[in-house]
Amino acid sequence: MEQNRILKKAETNEPEPESKVWYAIRVTFNREMKVKEDLDLRGIESFIPMKYVMGTRRGRRVKKLVPSIHNLIFFHIEPSLMKEYKATTRMPIRYIMNPATKKPVVVPEKEMQNFIAVAGTYDEQLEYITPKPGQFTRGDRVRILGGPFEGAEGILKRVKGDSRVVVSVLGLVAIVTTSIHPSLLEKIPKKK
Q1: Count of C-beta atoms within a 10 Å radius of residue 178
Q2: Confidence at residue 44, expressed as pLDDT on a 0 to 100 scale
Q3: Quick one: pLDDT at residue 132?
Q4: pLDDT digits (tens), the chain, 192 positions
Q5: Which CATH class is domain 108-192?
Q6: What are the boundaries of each domain within the chain?
Q7: φ and ψ at residue 142, rounded to 5 degrees
Q8: Nearest-CA neighbor of 74 among 110, 30, 34, 27?
Q9: Which has the closest alpha carbon to 149: 187, 111, 178, 190?
Q10: Helix and strand counts by DSSP (H, E) for the chain
Q11: How many Å apart are CA 84 and CA 106, to the nearest integer?
Q12: pLDDT tens sequence across 124-162
């Protein structure tokens, strides 16, 4: 059956469809929301970690949803369309580069799903941290079994005296969840 598909493909000369990947992108001058608006208009999926902060509006205290990490946005797009967008947009964006490979950082799908599962809750007790190289090598890898972060995977750490799960994206950014009861955690065995 696979051979038939390959033969049909060869006959039609159609290129294989590209898979979407998650790019980590820097946006200058805190314009991440303007970039997201442009992406939304073009039908391009994106994610900005957001949080609620208290502010004042017309003399009243109000909760406002703002980016948790300024100048950072994630694009979910095919590589060829990303190149086209980057070449044609007037938005102030640039790739975050992997220093070892000298190529744009592409976040694995599972890591991005875990990050969105936690950051997408807008929980006010989340803490965003910039990890140091190797900071998360110690501790057990765990999966959260219940509550608002159910299904997310990360590293169990003690932060401010509590057991919390740290969800990291390629060493670019990490989130520390609220205190999680051990009954809601499952240890993930180490891969050999």
Answers
A1: 17
A2: 96
A3: 43
A4: 444 544 454 455 555 678 999 999 999 888 999 999 999 999 999 999 998 888 888 899 999 899 988 889 999 999 999 999 999 999 889 998 877 788 999 999 999 999 999 998 887 778 776 544 333 334 778 878 777 787 888 887 777 766 678 888 877 788 888 777 565 677 787 776
A5: mainly beta
A6: 13-107, 108-192
A7: -135, 160
A8: 27
A9: 178
A10: 4, 15
A11: 17
A12: 778 776 544 333 334 778 878 777 787 888 887 777 766
Whole-number Å distance between alpha carbons of 74 and 106: 9
Residue with tokens 């493909």: 9
pTM: 0.67
Contacts of 27 (CB under 8 A, 6+ apart): 35, 71, 72, 73, 91, 92, 93
How far is 86 from 13, CA to CA, in rounded Å? 28
Contact 26, 104 (CB under 8 A): no
Fold annotation for 13-107: Alpha-Beta Plaits (3.30.70)
CA distances to 124, 130, 150 from 178, rounded to whole Å, are 9, 17, 13
Q: Rounded CA gap, 106 and 42, in Å?
A: 21
Region of 31 on the Ramachandran plot (φ > 0 left; ψ -120 to 50 alpha; else beta): alpha
